[in-house]
Design a protein that fits this description.
Order of helices and strands: HEEEHEEEHEHH
Strand order of the largest sheet: 4-5-6-1-7
Strand content: 5-15%
Radius of gyration: 17 Å
Largest sheet: 5 strands, antiparallel
Shape: elongated
């Protein structure tokens, strides 16, 4: 629940992202397969994500820093580089109001991400997606900020 609260404070800007009639879903990142007891098994013929590998391939690098923003090169979504802009937690309607009044990096159309957009930050092949995301973003902040 704490991770969701932290992620819900992430802000997103879609001014450069156009919605089209066709959506190309990204790969889940899952490359391993498991049986019903949770034991890792060979993926061949299971029909699991690790077997099928459907979806759009992840770009490298996955994220690019642009000043105060981070662009996800997989989804095209633009996130605020500082995931704690309001300097703390706030209830939902206040967070919406905060986003509606935010001007950052020349953008004024910020909003809270929806559940699908938050889920796009998950790497299903990693045991801890938060650690994976922080590692990727720490690398970016360390080399480009």
């Amino acid at each position: 629940m704490k991770k969701i609260a932290v992620l819900s404070l992430l802000l997103i800007c879609l001014s450069s992202f156009a919605f089209a009639g066709t959506v190309n879903l990204p790969k889940t990142g899952q490359t391993r397969c498991y049986d019903t007891s949770g034991t890792e098994i060979s993926c061949a013929g299971t029909g699991q994500d690790g077997d099928i590998q459907a979806g759009v391939k992840w770009p490298s690098p996955r994220f690019t820093v642009n000043g105060d923003c981070v662009t996800d090169n997989l989804t095209g979504l633009i996130w605020a580089k500082n995931a704690n802009l309001p300097s703390g937690t706030m209830i939902w309607y206040k967070a919406i109001d905060y986003c509606n009044n935010l001007s950052l990096a020349g953008y004024t159309d910020w909003r809270l991400p929806n559940v699908n957009e938050l889920e796009s930050l998950v790497n299903a092949n990693e045991p801890n997606s938060a650690t994976w995301l922080n590692t990727n973003l720490s690398f970016i902040r360390g080399t480009l900020s």
